[in-house]
From TrEMBL:
Origin species: Mastacembelus armatus
Keywords: Cytoplasm, GTPase activation, Membrane
Main subcellular location of this protein, as a coarse class: cytoplasm
Name of the featured protein: TBC1 domain family member 13
One of the GO biological process terms: intracellular protein transport
Domain Rab-GAP TBC per the UniProt entry, residue ranges: 26-336
A Gene Ontology molecular function term of the record: GTPase activator activity
Amino acid sequence: MSSLLALSEENINLKTLRELCFNGIPFEGGIRALCWKILLNYLPLDQTLWESFLKKQREVYSQFLKEMIIQPGIAKANLGLSREDVTMEDHPLNPNPESRWNTYFKDNEILLQIDKDVRRLYPDMAFFQRPTEYPCQLILDPQNDYETLRRRVEQTTLKAQTVNRNRSGVTNVSSPGKALNLYPSNEYEVLPNGSEAHWEVVERILFIYAKLNPGIAYVQGMNEIVGPIYYTFATDPNSQWKEHAEADTFFCFTNLMSENRDNFIKSLDDSQCGITYKMESVYSMLKDKDLELYLKLQEQNIKPQYFTFRWLTLLLSQEFLLPDVIRIWDTLFSDEDRFHFLILVCCAMLILIRDNLLVGDFTVNMRLLQDYPISDVHTILTKAKELQDNS
């Protein structure tokens, strides 16, 4: 029985669907995008509700665009003398934290950071630089005379603040072999009016997420989590689904972040739900499964945060090529306790290179761990499943 059959039921059996997707979702027929929407708790299990549910969600997303991008943009674009947003109470130099202008400048700082990150999303693939078939009409309507996010970035004179949230080196995220910088940031092809590139859509999703979640806002690396979801939805063979890739990605990303966000919140690092605890879990599992290797890493003082921080927060999205990341995510999203399975995957990755690690010195081993040598994700997932079955 394939995942296609599991989707033919009017009421989808989540347990069956999870079991089928765990071993990888077939590429044909755009099933993956649909399965992910169910596995990420976006689509209800009752198919009869889909149409009305999706209509409502997409309307909600349009509302977000109007309130968070279009309206602030209109106010800033009308640079005439009678500016309704420049009043005695609220003007650009107003220090009041409640000031709309103050919010606008703060938003720009976040936007500049997002912009820098999304422009270099998967630089070895042309996809994110290409124009989308379904540009957002709400934003690109020629009648609109407001500042789009892209124009806002181009016009802002603010210097992006260095984001001081890049714990454990997430700024230096790319591994040497994967950072083929084929698109130097100043050489982007400028698309004609009325078009927008896929990276601009990702930028909007992240900006709206940051506005709606001020407690976490935007942290470097989130672009690496939106990227594969958006790519999967925006390449769906079914054009009716593909057309709404932006809204659907936003909600799926929000759901995924609600499970993963604690990894991004610095103040929770050392709590039971924070990233430090998860990084240490990789080593405690390794100690249980391969004591010799565990002792070797301890002896060399190779701490889990030197490499597992990136593995865990970014769900391995920087360790493998995009098609392989997507395959790993089929399994992670299908596992009921997906972040526990991620720890098993990290442990499997260590055990699979144990022979090299046991003979390497600190420098050699750090290089192996920061630019992981095995590219066959099937081997890694099989090993992780084996560790799970033997626990």
